[in-house]
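Q: Given only this backbone (90 positions), what sequence would you predict?
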């Protein structure tokens, strides 16, 4: 079971619609740790760390997001593994 961390940037109508809350909920449900943070340009940054299959599952979910959001684009980069406890909303 390989462990990975990815940094994802989600753009679209993703602020003010509970995107970070739902991302944290999905992440914890999938056993992924990290954070979701609003950025000044209106996008959301997500750090997701854990089992590669679970992280990829969260990334797939991020492509759609919660019901009230609209995801226009998603970019991702693998980053150096780091142990993170829980899933923080920043």
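A: Predicted residues:
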């Amino acid at each position: 079971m390989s462990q990975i961390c990815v940094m994802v940037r989600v753009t679209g109508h993703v602020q003010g619609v509970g995107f970070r809350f739902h991302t944290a909920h999905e992440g914890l449900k999938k056993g992924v740790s990290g954070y979701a943070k609003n950025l000044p340009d209106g996008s959301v940054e997500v750090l997701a760390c854990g089992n590669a299959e679970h992280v990829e599952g969260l990334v797939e979910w991020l492509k759609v997001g919660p019901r009230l959001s609209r995801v226009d684009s998603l970019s991702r980069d693998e980053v150096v593994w780091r142990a993170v406890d829980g899933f923080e909303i920043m």
